[in-house]
Amino acid sequence: MAVTAQPLYFTLPSAGSISTPNRWVTVDTAGRGTLVSAATINILGALINKPTAQDQAMEIQFSGVAEIEAGAAIDETMAVYSNSQGFGLGFAAPGAGTAIGGICVKAASGSGAIAQVLLQPFKTPA
């Protein structure tokens, strides 16, 4: 059975060309969307489209159940955070200061697989 929840989206200008959707995104100091590059960087949501140039609209899902490309296997109930390339990683008990994008509701079997994640960004206490 598919997991569904009403998605909500917003757009930001892209910091550059990003050819891979389904990755975690954040905002840079210039107000442009970019891939999350570390586990401690706040997550805005999931990239939906493929912006091909700087300042092109980047569509970001920030509510509902999003598809996130996994960097490794992710099991249901795991908190999902980002690696240095915006891939989702699962962790049953994330460390202090980790930016979490949401909770996995449909597992990903390994790197490159798609996990379904209920979006609820938060940061673990430092």
Q: Which value, in Å, is the CA radius of gyration?
A: 13 Å
- State the helical fraction: under 10%
Strand composition percent: 35-45%
Number of strands: 10
What number of domains?
A: 2
| Element-level helix/strand string | EEEEEEEEEE
Q: What spatial order of strands do you see in the largest sheet? A: 1-5-4-2-3
Point out poorly predicted stretches: none
In whole angstroms, the N-to-C terminal distance is 37 Å
Structural class assignment: mainly beta
What characterizes the major β-sheet?
5 strands, antiparallel
Count of alpha and pi helical runs: 0
- The average pLDDT is 94
Query: How would the global form be characterised?
Result: globular
Folded structure, characterized:
The chain is an all-beta fold. It has 2 domains: 8-63, no CATH class; 65-123, no CATH class. 0% of the residues lie in helices and 43% in strands. The chain is built from no helices and 10 strands. A 5-stranded antiparallel sheet has the order 1-5-4-2-3, with no helix packed on it. Strands 6-10-9-7-8 form a 5-stranded antiparallel sheet, with no helix packed on it. Strand 9 (99-106) and strand 10 form a beta hairpin. It starts with 7 loop residues before the first strand and ends with a strand. The mean pLDDT is 94.
